[in-house]
Design a protein that fits this description.
mainly beta; Jelly Rolls; 5-stranded antiparallel sheet; 1 helix; globular
Length: 112
């Protein structure tokens, strides 16, 4: 059993979102991404399906040339190999569910 919180030890990066692995189990990795208003995760894709939940705030979620406005409580899932980007319209907390086969390091390298 693992217990954590999306709100514990929050920190906002000055230049880029802060990415933290919260939980890893046999099936998934649960990641928290903390955005300051205006911060972006550049266009990227993954080899595995993902699920993104907006826990707090508002995110512009770009997919296939369309920008979707996702607000607190919204959840979106993507199949593998779909290019997407995220832009925070306000300070935001995002929960990202990754496949066990995916890596947190891949996510952390997106804006490097």
């Amino acid at each position: 059993m693992q217990i954590t919180s999306l709100l514990k030890d929050l920190s906002y990066g000055d230049k880029k979102p802060v990415i933290t692995k919260l939980i890893e189990n046999e099936a998934t990795k649960e990641i928290r991404i903390v955005f300051r208003k205006g911060q972006e995760m550049k266009k990227h894709k993954t080899l595995y399906p993902i699920t993104v939940e907006i826990f707090e705030g508002e995110i512009g979620f770009g997919v296939n040339g369309m920008m979707y406005v996702l607000k607190r409580g919204d959840i979106i899932s993507l199949e593998p190999n779909i290019s997407h980007n995220l832009i925070a319209s306000e300070n935001s907390i995002v929960r990202l569910s990754l496949s066990k086969k995916d890596s947190v390091q891949r996510v952390q390298k997106i804006n490097q």
